[in-house]
Amino acid sequence: MAAGCAPASSLAEQYRDGSNKGFIAGNFQVVEIAEKDRGKPVVFEGVTETGNTVTSGDYRGGVLVVNFWYAACGPCIVEAPLLERVWQEYKGKGVEFLGVNTYDQPATALSFAKDNGVTYPSVIDVTDGTVKLAFAQVTPIQATPTTLVIDRTGRVAARVIGQLGASSILSTLVSDTLAEDAP
């Protein structure tokens, strides 16, 4: 079984029970990647829910937290305030946050942000999935939500598969990555 994926029997049980969650639950897992073991920088381009184009180049030189989510995902709703808490903690300190909405249209993403107090932007990736694909080429993204911490050079430094359990977990990952020597 791949880490982060629910066992086939669990999905079948969900279907038979009619729970119809609409997401594959990830078993909470945190993976930190040593600098020497990190892959290639992720190169991406997308359009946010407000129509702004963002690229990987916009974030080079700082630490970037990327969260894959969608509005009807229960774990995404639960972790939204935790992500926002860490965003507010590091905002203006060389750290940026970017959501990647893999399912919704811009209006739904904006409504989610308003309802859940999320102030960082999200790429709307539902049409062609190119942003998710760019990240999936260098690291597993097996469940929603998945949160990645990207180092100053654009490489994946840490991965959280499944719902973030506490803001302190992400804060530590961000702090560790931010403390690394700048290139």
Write up what this structure looks like:
There is one protein chain. The chain has one domain (28-179): Glutaredoxin (3-Layer(aba) Sandwich), CATH 3.40.30. It is built from 5 helices and 8 strands; from the N terminus they run αββββαβαβαββα. The protein is α/β, with parallel strands linked by helices and 183 residues long. Strand 2 (45-47) and strand 3 form a beta hairpin. It has helices at 8-17, 74-90, 106-116, 130-136, 167-179, and strands spanning 29-32, 45-47, 53-55, 63-69, 95-101, 122-124, 146-150, 156-161.
CATH architecture: 3-Layer(aba) Sandwich
**CATH homologous superfamily (4th level) name:** Glutaredoxin
Name the helicity range.
Answer: 25-40%
Structural class: alpha/beta
Give the quaternary arrangement of the chains. Answer: single chain
Which fold name corresponds to the CATH topology? Glutaredoxin
**Overall form:** globular
Average pLDDT:
87
Q: For the record, what CATH class applies?
A: Alpha Beta
Based on the model shown, name its key terms:
183 residues, Glutaredoxin, two-stranded antiparallel sheet, single chain, alpha/beta, 5 helices, disordered N terminus, 8 strands, globular, six-stranded mixed beta sheet
Q: How do the strands and helices of this protein lay out in sequence?
A:
Blueprint: H1 8-17, E1 29-32, E2 45-47, E3 53-55, E4 63-69, H2 74-90, E5 95-101, H3 106-116, E6 122-124, H4 130-136, E7 146-150, E8 156-161, H5 167-179
Parallel strand pairs: 4-5, 5-6
Antiparallel strand pairs: 1-8, 2-3, 4-7, 7-8
Helix pairs in contact: 2-5
